């Protein structure tokens, strides 16, 4: 039930701090040891490459997963959209390991890849929110997201839960491989900061309603941009806005601006920019100037380390790969209030189903 909430989506956005704490409880000991079954870790240590396969928001969480596993477990990872992978299998590495991300565990595009992976005798893991789902029954290994039922069609808490669970597994694999970077990864603390940061965001709905009004207003187009991890989150923030508000939205790599998209920037166009990576912040600031010079209405969401005086939203700093736990929530809140302001049905947007069980 929605309880006192007007919509499931807002309830689910607001639940995210609790989800972070639940994942911490379920998967980490007080001294930051991860609780992952040995059989899964053994299978993963055999692998020479991870293949993430997913759709929609789960695909966007997989992009973050690649970065987490490459950094903390030093294992190469590829990420694929399930509907593409299914009909265009790449040449695999010698010892591939398949990771499926699926909130519902019912996505047909992902299942089709799982069936073929199993036919080839390849190891499979699913990270899902639904314990008795089809993918959970069919995969060799299952990690639950512990997000609680997600009812709104737009996925919110499953996205941040997927990222948190990926971080647990990446740390765990890195530790098994004896990597110092994994041993010193203070994940429990990071998730606690994330939970507190999320609480600060969701405790001020009015502020997000104002930002949505001031930057998205009744506009029909919007752009999200960022580099690296902020690019990953731009894609998710753009999907969130377009699927519920029907605003035509593009998320793209900030460096690509000058290669085409800048042609669309004119007076009043909303541009939402994520800046949380210190290494690329200066370049993205350059992009902000370029679009401002062309009259764009720019909203900057930055982490504390990257902050500048005029930034409208400043977030606590997490390890780079976990910043989507906070920037992702910003994207959700903006999309939510822009949609409410358009008088649309947030929980059940047109043409979309909660789980897509056809290819
Ligand atoms: O249940 P799944 O995670 O497999 O679903 C994948 C997509 O269908 C889903 O994320 C979809 O893109 C949502 N509408 C996004 O909010």
From TrEMBL:
Q: Which reaction does it catalyse?
A: D-fructose 6-phosphate + L-glutamine = D-glucosamine 6-phosphate + L-glutamate
Name the catalytic site residues: 354
* GO MF annotation terms: carbohydrate derivative binding; glutamine-fructose-6-phosphate transaminase (isomerizing) activity
Q: Name one GO cellular component term.
A: cytosol
Q: What is its main location?
A: cytoplasm
Report the enzyme's class at the first EC level.
Answer: transferase
Q: Which GO terms describe its biological process?
A: carbohydrate metabolic process; fructose 6-phosphate metabolic process; protein N-linked glycosylation; UDP-N-acetylglucosamine metabolic process
Which E.C. number(s) belong to this protein?
2.6.1.16
Where does the SIS domain start and stop, copy by copy?
A: 40-179, 211-349
Q: What keywords were assigned to this record? A: Aminotransferase, Cytoplasm, Glutamine amidotransferase, Repeat, Transferase
Q: Is Transcription found in the keyword set?
A: no
Q: Where in the cell is it found?
A: Cytoplasm
- Please describe what this protein does: Catalyzes the first step in hexosamine metabolism, converting fructose-6P into glucosamine-6P using glutamine as a nitrogen source.
What does the subunit section of this Swiss-Prot or TrEMBL entry state?
Homodimer.
What name appears for this protein in its UniProt entry?
Answer: Glutamine--fructose-6-phosphate aminotransferase [isomerizing]
Portion held of the full protein? 246 to 604 of 604
